Amino acid sequence: MSLATRLKPYATPITLALGLLVLAGLTDLIQITLLIRIVTVMFTSLILVLGLQLYMGNSGILSFAHIGFMGIGAYTSVLFSMTPAAKELSIPDIYPILLPLHLPFWPSVLVGALVAAFIAAFISYPLMRLSDAAAVITTFAVLVIIHVVLVHWGPVTNGPRTVFGIDNYTQLWTSTIVAVIIVFAVYFFKESRIGLRLRATRDDAYAAASIGINMVVMRWLAFIISAFIAGVGGGLWAHFITSFSPYAFYLTETFVVLAMLVIGGPYSVSGAVVGTVVVTFARELLRAIENYINILQVFPEGFFGFTEVVLAIVLILILIYRPSGIMGSREVGWPQWRRRKDDGEANNKLQEA
Amino acid sequence: MINLEFIINTISLGSLYAMLALGLVIIYGILRLVNFAYGELIMIGGYTMYLLTGFTPLPWLIVAVLAVAAAMFTSLFTELVAFRPVREKSLTAMLITSFAVSTLLQNAALLLISPRAKGVTLPQIFQTSVTIAGTDIPWRNILTIITCAATLILLLLLLRHTVLGIALRAAADNFTMTRILGVPANTVISAAFAISGIMAGIVSIFWIGRSATVTPTLGAPPLLVAFVATVIGGMRSLTGAVVGGFVYAILISLLGLFLPPELIEFREAFMFAIVIIILLFRPEGLIRSKTSVERVG
Predict the structure, then answer these.
(1) What's the confidence (pLDDT) of residue A294?
(2) Residue of B nearest to A217 (CA)
(3) Searching chain A, which residue's CA lies closest to the CA of residue B94?
């Protein structure tokens, strides 16, 4: 048996990982500061999009809450990674009890992700019974609640003001490696027993219940894991950006992450990866055009919002003409098997529903 | 504490919120679409007023009517261009579409007008008060109550006594059945979006009457209010929307009175926590609708 055949079950994550590693490698070779910045942030976005895909793709339920969990991960990890002196300077009203907490970078990110997962586990169990619009409104409510708390909880988050002076731990390869690990994790989750059961509830909740699948528990587990991943993404992002305010974790960011997932294709891991890469570069290009026009000062009031307008139009067009995204429910595999037929799994789920 | 001023203020807020909720529910009832772009219709109304009062000599009443018309046409246009093509697909697709439309309109305002807040010139009556039984009542609040009451009565007459109204109510109860009975889907849905736009337009007049400025992100707070009010009242019932609007106004006013000052900033979080609790224990809201299948499990 050839190596390729033996690795076939892992073809998708390996192909995706290789693609991502090549992208990071090229970026490292070219050594343009701006490109390194873009690609590093792209990988932190990818972690978030993958987290969202894990929940949304497998359960079929839209979630607005994940950017909130990213925020929780970011703030918690920062509270642990900053030195007491830096914390006192950056968050003047901080609770004295939080001051002495200090951990190295990786444990801080882990704690941040665990706190996000814990909060998700605590608040989401009852919400997992809801479907359709009720589910969407409740996750939206969770996002609003997290946002309001982040903005007003001065002694922990410095209120609406920016937290600054965070050490820059996240480098290009840090976020690359974590993103690659999460590609594998999300793919294996999809193929795991829990993932399969969850996808069964997505395709037909009653049929799944009739063969003994507990939909609420399956959704709950996926929600916790995806909140954990969002927390990791938040932690890494915070230690790259090094200063941020609660407004970074609200509707604008939610829109970008949703656009990445939906444009790529919410029903596959490959879709999440492709969508993130495509949208990141498209966005940077549009942003560059926007900045250039602003420098020219053609418009007296400035030229803002162009990027989002184009992105929103593309998103609507994708939803109209290709509702299952660029990838549909396909996963990438070894090149020679790419032409194999879809194995009937939830293809064009959006259309039939 | 609870005096005439408080009561009038709460009623005026309540009638405004009731209109907000109605505009959202009338679409939700038929399409199951939670329209995230609803708040942006209010923003459109606001910018129309800013442009017309600032750059044309039109009298204020005509400006107000044109603002309502602008919100209505935007609502119809978004339905035609964005929602109609994804309508047959899935709920999730429609929800993401409405989120995208919301972002699109918001950033279009940013791009075409300005990121900065713009002042809207309001007529004198919005700043003056009248003294009733020893308390100063702003005319604005009285106008809000009168306009909203009139609109609600007109809407009620429309829904009760016209063919279109009956079709709308039938569609909200059971859209498939209504279509089978020969009611054209597009007409009903367009009518719902038009009514939703009119509601948003009227709300925009009084919403901006409070702040006298308009910004691209103006739509978010009223949208959040409408969400909470519809969930409280019942997502599927028009009566519920009105009840929800008033309950919201009473709750938020009471929270403002009785919440300790250090928690008042978290008022919104409390309101949304209430939303979650209501959806869990009484997903059909205060007012039950005849047909309500929302949750599985």
Answers:
(1) 85
(2) B297
(3) A319
Check pLDDT > 90 for residue A194: yes
Q: Which residue of A has its CA nearest to B266?
A: A148
Q: For A319, which residue in chain B has the nearest alpha carbon?
A: B93
Q: To the nearest whole angstrom, how far is the Cα of B294 from the nearest Cα of chain A?
A: 6
Residue A221: the pLDDT is: 95
A202: Cβ–Cβ under 8 A, 6 or more apart, which residues? A58, A59, A60, A61, A346, A349
User: Which residues of B fall within a CB distance of 8 Å from A62?
Assistant: 92, 95-96
| Predicted pLDDT of residue A189 | 94
**pLDDT score for A335:** 64
Is residue B230, in this structure, part of any structural domain at all?
no
User: Are B104 and A309 an interchain contact pair (Cβ–Cβ within 8 Å)?
Assistant: yes
- Confirm whether B24 is domain-assigned: yes
Q: Given an 8 Å threshold on Cβ–Cβ distance, is B272 in contact with A141?
A: yes
What pTM, to 2 d.p., does this model score? 0.88
Which of A63, A137, A157 to mutate: most B Cβ within 10 Å? A137
Q: In the predicted model, what is the mean pLDDT of residues A253-276?
A: 92
| Å between A278 CA and nearest CA of chain B | 18
Identify the closest residue of chain A to B81 by CA–CA distance: A316
Interchain CB contacts (distance < 8 Å): A and B: 163
* Domain boundaries, given as residue ranges, for chain A: 3-249
Compare CB distances from A148 to B101, B104, B266 and report the shortest one's residue. Answer: B266
- Asked if the structure places residue B174 within a domain, the reply is yes
Closest Cα partner for A314 from A303, A325, A304?
A325
Task: Write out the DSSP string of chain B.
Answer: --SHHHHHHHHHHHHHHHHHHHHHHHHHHHH----TTHHHHHHHHHHHHHHHHHH----HHHHHHHHHHHHHHHHHHHIIIIIHHHTTS-HHHHHHHHHHHHHHHHHHHHHHT-SS-EE----GGGT-EEEETTEEEEHHHHHHHHHHHHHHHHHHHHHHHSHHHHHHHHHHH-HHHHHHTT--HHHHHHHHHHHHHHHHHHHHHHHHHHH-EE-TTTTHHHHHHHHHHHHHH-TT-HHHHHHHHHHHHHHHHHHHHHS-GGGGGGHHHHHHHHHHHHHHH-TT-SSPPS----B--
pLDDT lower than 50: segments of chain B: 292-297
* ipTM field: 0.87
Instruction: Choose the mutation target among B90, B262, B268 for the interface with A, i.e. most A CBs under 10 Å.
Output: B90
Contact B107 A140 (CB under 8 A): no
Q: What are the tens digits of pLDDT across the range A82-127?
A: 988 888 888 888 888 888 888 999 999 999 999 999 999 998 888 8
User: What pLDDT, on a 0 to 100 scale, did the predictor assign at position A129?
Assistant: 83
A222 or A353: which leads in pLDDT: A222
Domain carrying residue B53: 4-218
Best residue of B47, B51, B88, B99 to probe chain A, by most A CBs closer than 10 Å? B99
pLDDT for A352 equals: 42
Binning pLDDT at 50, 70 and 90, where does residue A220 land?
very high
Nearest CB among B33, B93, B103 relative to A312 is that of: B103
